[in-house]
Specification:
The chain contains 7 helices and 6 strands. By secondary structure, it is an alpha+beta fold. The strands form 2 sheets. Strands 2-3-1-6 form a 4-stranded antiparallel sheet, sandwiched between helices.
Length: 219
C-alpha cells in the first residue's frame, strides 16, 4: 500500500494520526512497565512529552511525503506528455487506451496540412506555435475523458470513448472549422493553419490500438 499525501490537509491528518498512535503506545507501555499509581502521576507529563516529540516529527515527515507525491506526479506528467504540445505521448496513449478495453469509441487522426512548407517559410518557432495551437483547438473541442496524443511530427490523434462514427465525424468537422477561423500569430501576422482528418469507428479501445499500429506500419 502506498501512502499518498496530496494536500496540507492530508499532512495535518497524518501528523494527528501518528500522534494519537504514539500516545496510545505510550499509555500501553506505561501500563505494562509501571504500577498504576505511578502511571497516574506520570500521565500528564508523558502526554506532553509524547505530543511535543511526535507531532512536529510526524508533521515534518508528512511534508516530505507530500513533496515526494508532488514530485512523482510531475515526473509522471513529464513521462506521459509531449513537452512541446502537452498532448499524450504515443506510449501513454497506448496505456490509457488499454484501460478503456471493451468501450466502443471513435478514433480521429489529424495531419497538419503542408506543415513542412509552413516550417520552412516561417521558421521552427512558428512551427512549434502551430503544433501547440492545433492541440489547443483539439482540447477545446473534446470532453474530459477523451484522449489527445501526438502521433508523429505533425500528426495527432483523438480517441473518443462511447461515440459513434457519426458523432466522431461531427467532432472532426468542428475541429476543421475551428482551425480555419483561428489562424496562428507569427511575428505579428496571422498565418492560417489547416489540417486533414480521418475518422474510424472502433468496437473497443483495443481495436483502436490495432488500427493505430496498422497506421504506424504504413508511415
Amino acid at each position: 500500500m502506498q501512502l499518498r499525501l496530496k494536500h496540507m490537509r492530508d499532512v495535518r491528518l497524518f501528523a494527528a494520526a501518528i500522534t494519537v498512535v504514539a500516545l496510545a503506545g505510550n499509555f500501553a507501555l506505561q501500563g505494562l512497565l509501571y504500577p498504576a499509581d505511578l502511571v497516574d502521576r506520570l500521565r500528564f507529563a508523558s502526554c506532553v512529552i509524547t505530543v511535543a516529540l511526535a507531532l512536529p516529527i510526524s508533521f515534518f515527515v508528512g511534508l516530505r511525503l507530500r513533496d515526494i507525491y508532488q514530485l512523482t506526479v510531475s515526473l509522471e506528467a513529464a513521462r506521459d506528455h509531449d513537452p512541446l504540445t502537452g498532448a499524450l505521448t504515443r506510449a501513454a496513449f497506448h496505456r490509457h487506451a488499454a484501460g478503456l478495453a471493451g468501450t466502443p469509441a471513435t478514433l480521429i487522426i489529424c495531419d497538419i496540412d503542408h506543415f513542412k512548407a509552413f516550417n520552412d517559410c516561417y521558421g521552427h518557432l512558428a512551427g512549434d506555435a502551430a503544433l501547440r495551437h492545433v492541440v489547443e483547438v483539439m482540447g477545446a473541442n473534446c470532453r474530459k475523458g477523451d484522449l489527445i496524443a501526438r502521433f508523429g511530427g505533425e500528426e495527432f490523434l483523438m480517441l473518443l470513448p462511447g461515440t459513434t462514427l457519426e458523432e466522431g465525424g461531427r467532432v472532426a468537422e468542428r475541429l476543421c472549422q475551428s482551425l480555419r477561423v483561428t489562424p496562428v500569430p507569427v511575428d505579428g501576422t496571422d498565418r492560417p493553419v489547416t489540417a486533414s482528418f480521418g475518422v474510424a469507428a472502433v468496437r473497443t479501445a483495443r481495436e483502436a490500438i490495432r488500427t493505430l499500429s496498422s497506421v504506424e506500419r504504413g508511415l
